[in-house]
Amino acid sequence: MNMKSYPRWLAGAAAVLACAACGGGGEKAGAGASTGATAAAPAPAPAAGATTAAAPGGAPSAGKPITGKTWDVKMIGDATGYKFDPAALTIKQGDGVKWTVVSTPPHNVSFWPDSVPSGAASALQGNMPNTMSQLVGPLLLNANDTYTVSFAGVPAGTYKYYCTPHLAMNMKGTITVQ
Ligand SMILES: [Cu+2]
Fold first, then answer.
1. pTM of the full predicted structure?
2. Which of 60, 98, 127, 162 could anchor a disulfide with 150, C-beta 3.0 to 4.6 Å?
């Protein structure tokens, strides 16, 4: 009943206003939507890239310096067999371990990638100088040669390792990082 009493011009103006509002609103909504789309689109990409970059676990990692104590482990081969001494060592995050050849080289330090704590392989690899392959340290050829690994920036947990040339002789060790 009221509608019919409105003048024709008012209805027309309302229609124009409505259209203007529609157009403006639509434009803004469109701009907003496209901005949102472009903003949202790149986000998943870097995340996916980061995941795939981290997964191979090897690539570029600067390595984190030792911030705590450096522990000594001897690499021994003698009449009693081949061994790391101590074979089991408990350290803290940020500590380092220095292996020293005492007798009957070559020896090295190799971690089993599937035995280290979840997410540790990449960080540990980055902390291992001169690896021959992932988590496999270089061969130490001479008595008194040393090899030092930082356990900074690696997760707590148990790190099992072995000497590649003497794995068959049970030359194995464990580093527990607290
Ligand atoms: Cu060895």
1. 0.66
2. 127
Q: How far is the CA of 105 from the centre of ligand 1 (A)?
A: 6
Q: Separation of 150 CA from ligand 1 center, angstroms? A: 20
Element (H, E) at 91: strand 88-91
Contact partners, residue 73, CB within 8 Å, separation at least 6:
84, 85, 86, 89, 97, 98, 99, 100, 173
Backbone region of residue 155 per phi and psi (left: phi > 0; alpha: psi in -120 to 50; beta: other values): beta
As a whole number of angstroms, the distance between CA 107 and CA 99 comes to 10
Which one of 3.30.1330.60, 3.40.50.150, 2.60.120.460, 2.60.40.420 gives the CATH number of domain 70-177?
2.60.40.420
Contact 55, 49 (CB under 8 A): no
**Cis peptide bond N-terminal to 86, omega within 30:** yes
Give the tens place of pLDDT for each residue, 52-102. Answer: 333 344 444 569 999 999 999 999 999 999 999 999 999 999 999 999 999
pLDDT of residue 25: 41
Distance 154 CA to ligand 1 centre (A): 25
Give the Å distance between the CA of 142 and the centre of ligand 1: 12
CA 169 to centroid of ligand 1, rounded, Å: 8
Please name the residue that has the structure tokens 């689109």.
41
